[in-house]
Structure formats: structure tokens, C-alpha cells
Amino acid sequence: MKYASNKSVFKMYEYIQPFLKYSTPVEDKIPGSNVLVIAPHQDDESMGCGGTIIKHVRDGGHLEIVFCTSDNARTEETREATKILGSSVNHFLQFEVGTLHSLNSALASRFTSVFEKAGPDVVFLPFMLDNHADHIAISRAFAKSYKKNPIDCLVYAYPVWGTLMPNTISDITGVWEEKKRAIECYKSQTATRDYVKMASSIAQFWAIVKGKNIEYAETFFKATSKEYVSLVKRVL
Questions:
Q1: pLDDT digits over 185-222, tens only?
Q2: pLDDT bracket for residue 1 (50, 70, 90)
Q3: pLDDT at 14
Q4: Strands 168-171 and 26-27, sheet pairing
Q5: Radius of gyration of the chain from its Cα atoms, rounded to whole angstroms
Q6: By the 8 A CB rule, do 108 and 144 touch?
Q7: C-beta of residue 46 within 8 angstroms of C-beta of residue 17
Q8: Mind giving me the DSSP string for the chain?
Q9: Using CA of residue 157, residue 163, residue 165, residue 170, what is the dihedral sign?
Q10: Is the pTM value of this prediction over 0.90?
């Protein structure tokens, strides 16, 4: 299955219901020092969780980013974006764009190697039903890697090409301009789509939903690695 089916969506809502709260909490800080972001493509990290990880680094936390696919047009753009985000180490897996859904074992193996080196407390990755085959592939590979070598961490699943029902909200009002600049670094991508408008619209929507003087917000589905892998196996 390349993309998520309607059946998967219905199953997902059934299984994640216990994780959802009537009043979604706003987290001020990530509960962990070492953060690893998995980005299927060079720009997903800035779009999906850029504000939250900028805050994390400003608070003294450590950040590493895994870029799963490679695009020569984005090489310099990625360098500039990661400077803004504050990433200390970047891992480039060099797979071709659009191939991740067919490379589950290879991707899982690379994840295992990175996890062993990085020792993350928190892993950010695209939500399991985000509307892109490469994004869905990340959760499948994460689950396969976990089966071979369980990693004890928290998972923050972020949206890019869709929305999700969050159980955690991050107020990124104070760092929105930095997130915007990170997205704008990817000129090869923003030339054809207004990703800044896309990100700001989603961030403002959830800020309005939550209220409490929030202007921009990022949303996540938060679970332990064990819980997330269990959900992936049930839904995908």
C-alpha cells in the first residue's frame, strides 16, 4: 500500500482515541535533552516541527536531523536552514526522492545505525498517515528498526501534507519568524508552492483553536516509542 487507505484512517482514529484529551495541553519544553528529527525530504523538518526544535535548541537542548532523501538543488538550502534551526549534526541517507516506500529494510537499517550513535530522548517524525508515500514509509521503517533494536524514547509525530488530531501543542509564537526564515531557505521548493503560507495557515488555525494568546502553534501526536510502533503495526 503506497498511500493510506480510508480503512487505515478509520482504524487509526479508533486506536489513537485513548491518547487524545478533550483539552490538548500546551507544552513549553520538550521532555528530553537529545532530540533527533527524521525528515523524509529536505524541508519537512522546517515545515513540520521547525518552531519547536528552534525553541529546544534555545533552551540548551541538543538537536540532530536525519535527511532521508537527497536533492542536489536543496544542498545549500539545507545548510542555511539547519543553521537557523540550530542542528548540531546532520545525517544524510542519500535515498532518491519518491523511493522510500519501497526501501523499508534499507531505511530501517540506516535508522538503527543513527539511533545507536545519537541516543535520542525524543524522535520527531512525520505522522503515520501523513498524505505522502515517503512520509508514511518513515513510520513503517521506524517500526521495523524498533523490532530489531528497541529504542526507548518519546515520539513526536508531526504533520506536513495533512492535519492530525494532536495530543500535544507547542506555542511557537516567539520563534515564528525564525521558522519562516528556515522555510524560505528552500527557494527551489517555495518557487512553485507557497509553503510559508501553508505553514502559517495551519499554525494560526491551531493557535485560534487553543486560544490563550497564542498566535502560532505546532501540533504533534505524542507517544512512547513502544506505543507508537504498536499503533503503526495496527494501522498500517
A1: 999 999 999 999 999 999 999 999 998 899 999 999 99
A2: very low
A3: 73
A4: parallel
A5: 16
A6: yes
A7: no
A8: --S--HHHHHHHHHHHGGG--SSPPEESS-S-SEEEEEESSTTHHHHHHHHHHHHHHHTT-EEEEEEEEE-GGGHHHHHHHHHHHT-SEEEEEEEETT-GGG-HHHHHHHHHHHHHHH--SEEEEE-TT-SSHHHHHHHHHHHHHHHHS----EEEEE-SSS----SEEEE-GGGHHHHHHHHHT-HHHHTTS-HHHHHHHHHHHHHHHH-TT-S-EEEEEEEEHHHHHHHHHHH-
A9: positive
A10: yes
Q: Rounded to 5 degrees, what angle do the CA atoms 219, 29, 42 make?
A: 55
**Band of residue 99 on the pLDDT scale cut at 50, 70, 90:** very high
- d(CA 6, CA 12) in angstroms, rounded, equals 10
In this predicted structure, the answer to whether residue 52 has a pLDDT above a threshold of 50 is yes
Q: 6-16+30-235, superfamily in CATH?
A: LmbE-like (3.40.50.10320)
What confidence score (pLDDT) does residue 211 get? 85
Find out whether 192 and 49 touch, Cβ atoms under 8 Å. Answer: no
User: CA-CA-CA-CA torsion for 109, 57, 71, 74, nearest 10 degrees?
Assistant: -170
Break the chain into its structural domains and give their ranges: 6-16+30-235
The x, y and z cell numbers of residue 61, run together, are 537542548
